[in-house]
Amino acid sequence: MGWKGILGFEYGIVQAPLGPDISGPELVAAVANAGGLGFLRAPDWESPDYLRGLIRKTRNLTDKPFGVGVVLAFPHEENLRVILDEKVAVLQVYWGKCSKELVLEAHLAGVKVVPQVGSAEEAREAINAGVDAIIVQGREAGGHVIGQEGLISLLPRVVDLVGDHDIPVIAAGGIVDARGYVAALALGAHGVCLGTRFMATEESYAHPLYKRKLVELDKTEYTDVFGRARWPNAPQRALVTPFFSEWKPLPHENEVNQPVIGHSTINGQEKEIHRFAGPVPNATATGDVESMAMYAGQGVGLIKEIIPAGEVVRKLVEGAQLLIRQKFTDTN
Ligand SMILES: Cc1cc2nc3c(=O)[nH]c(=O)nc-3n(C[C@H](O)[C@H](O)[C@H](O)COP(=O)(O)O)c2cc1C
């Protein structure tokens, strides 16, 4: 049955790395302890000691394996070194070339490599590079969105491309509950990767106001209004907050010359948050938090409460088993 584990993990449930620091040790450990694959997120700058601290803190909270996500568009060589040196179970990479050399180096360290892709072309390159699994991101996804296609059409294409290779395909984008999970399995996925649902959990490092908005609001938009200077040509799916509706139509070049609307400590560094800046508010954010970027996937309207991350994993697994038994099992 497809709903069983992937990459040696108990279940095929993946908690996406959530930048800049929303998927911290508490969230990742909670997911790991529940049998899922949780990803820390490496800082956007070289910060090997800080990252090593995050990995060790997570290990103090769980004895289960977990992963780290790296956005290749940012400086990452020293961070990568720490991930391999610490022999974290899985390295997730996004927004950059997942080369054969990188995969080989990780494998030599005993680390599995899982890129997140947004097109069939990117998936083909990943297969050729020898990756261990592929996350397929549909345009429904929250956060930065690398491709243009919807998950329902892109996912089976990647499944077909993978063919007989032993490479589990993991679906990402708009999946929030067991129905989405079972739908992804029907399309050929072996697992699912959820971002927005895990952000709205007790253990996520998102600001309480951001978590509340994820419960209250249900509309998202594919946009490029946030973080144009720091991460150019990187569209994102954001929650349609009152700030977003009011300010989106107003022209602006980027966030650099915008006023400072608040402050946040991100991965150990004090940051000024300008209006239209990219980082979403973490628990330390102060100031006009309501006006900060709040990313979310199209499934956000299905999120009705903040629950523990372990419960998200349990509900997905038990719900999928029930759904398959009740609706898709031939009893004749
Ligand atoms: C706040 C937020 C931050 C994200 N940060 C990252 C990241 O740093 N690296 C990454 O590969 N994906 C990131 N993603 C995208 C996820 O990997 C995944 O594609 C997406 O969350 C799936 O869609 P969903 O949010 O509807 O579940 C982020 C998503 C959100 C909502």
TrEMBL record:
InterPro entries: Aldolase_TIM, NMO. Keywords: Flavoprotein, FMN, Oxidoreductase. It comes from the Eukaryota. Gene3D superfamilies: Aldolase class I (3.20.20.70). One of its GO terms (molecular function) is nitronate monooxygenase activity. Pfam families: NMO. This is 2-nitropropane dioxygenase.
